[in-house]
Amino acid sequence: MGKLEGKVAVITGATSGMALAGARLFVDEGAHVFISGRRKDALDEAVNLIGRNVTGVQGDSANLEDLDRLFETVRQEKGTVDVLWASAGMGEQGRLGEITEEQFDAAFSLNARGTLFTVQKALPLFNDGGSIFMTGSNASLRGYPGWSVYAASKAVLPAYARVWVSELRDRRIRVNVLTPGQVATPVLEKVMDAQMKAQFESVIPRREMGRPEEIASVALFLASDDSSYVNGMELVVDGGTTVI
What we know:
By secondary structure, the protein is an alpha/beta fold.
């Protein structure tokens, strides 16, 4: 029996990278997974790749009507939710003095506002004893030049978790933050040249970027009863980058 046998999981922003790897692993462990993404072609490709026990719902997690449609689909097909991984996020580089209103609004609209409303709109369907976790970033823990807006938009997530643990204690719903470091996702690899890759890997103790599957295995831990005593925590999975 899998660690998520009979569970219903929702993963936003799951058309590639870490969240897609997590969706595949969750299905392998017995869950039915609802995934969302903005691009229909990418969403269809992800659903085909997962192959079974998956429902794709096109939508932007920064759009509240799209979130309503996502959770209405969950309600109609399964009725309840056991696991929510709010993973949809974005970031754009910009140094102080060059940051635009559009960059600020886009990052906070999705990473901070979208994450909050994803969780809030899932709650009416949530089974007591379930697990909620959000994707953070170790950019919020270190001072990477050019990433202040992205870092700030991710820094709010541990604050959410700490408050929501208190608010959801009677329902025994756990809330955590999964904070990865540099991971070789398709999105990153598209924009990363050899120099950027070498710079990233130079700060990782093992001198090698993380793989999406490595993050997925930690997501499974947070989704399953293996983490039943982990609550309100930011779990940093960055190969030790932030401790040296």
